[in-house]
Amino acid sequence: MTTVDAALSTLPAHAEGSEPTVSWAAVPADEEGPDGRRWVENVLDPGASKTEHLAVTNLGSDPVTFALKAADGYFTDTGRFTMLPSASTSVDAGTWIAVQDTVDVQPGETEVVAFTISVPEGAAPGDHPAGIAATVLARPAAGDPQGVGVEGRVGFRVLTRVTGDLTPALALDDVVVRYEYSWNPFAPGQVSVEYTLRNEGNVALGVKDRVFSVSPGGDDPGETGSPELTEMFAGDERTIRSEVQDVWPLGPLTARVAVHPTALQGGEPVLEPATAEVTAWVFPWPQSAVVLIVAVTVVLVRLDMRRRRRVWAERIAEARALGRAESDAGTAG
């Protein structure tokens, strides 16, 4: 179990003869205790260092020795921040953090631990993500030799910006527009807009206020977007997808995408919006099928009516001929 950028977690810590539950929190702090920050951000020169603090709270009923670990940070495919597992080797900002190995915390108590961020000389300018966490190893249950221990981690991100030439850059590519027909031919369908974002600079970016416009025939665009912030570190690539509802398949559909980036550290705009536009042609197949069925039905009904008229005309003509024949026979008699 890995939990980073979260204040609280619980983990069953199996021990001989009992199964206590360890519950704990780990948050940024000052020397006095938790200071309300969600994570730690600093701007440091190459060769500089800074001391920060971590507050570890034991919310369980037993004393716990927590291991303290730091590692390089990254975003998962779902956009959640985490840090490299203990079995992986950090190569960047995770190696810049020095912290004591363990901390003992009594039930209901909070211990504040100092840690130092030391930026090496020659560090590349830009944002460098790492994480720091208080961890507990849950051993396999007694009598289960095949069990696997689970490491629980609770912590937060530590983002260090190294001064120098900052080069924010965001690429928007591979915009794909797909139309999804409604099962009901008398109802509009939806358009899915998918595209790829790449953070090609050295600054961590938050992408928000995405706007997707789809205009049938170029008029009256429908707009939608996601209020959620998409966070991207340098080098990250993310595929974004959204849907525009209630769009009729009326030929050309033009999708316009505008992506507004801001800096994660500081939150200020750093770039003009990245934009792209793609036009796709969509044929109204369901509606055309309905029209075709109606047209064929009308033609068949008309043909049937003509056939019926012809049959009745033939029968009437036969009846008239029979009536004349009978009349002529009576006259002759």
TrEMBL record:
Alphabetized UniProt keyword annotations: Membrane, Transmembrane, Transmembrane helix
Claim: Membrane is one of the keywords in the record: yes
Residues passing through the membrane, by range: 281-301
Protein name, UniProt field: DUF916 domain-containing protein
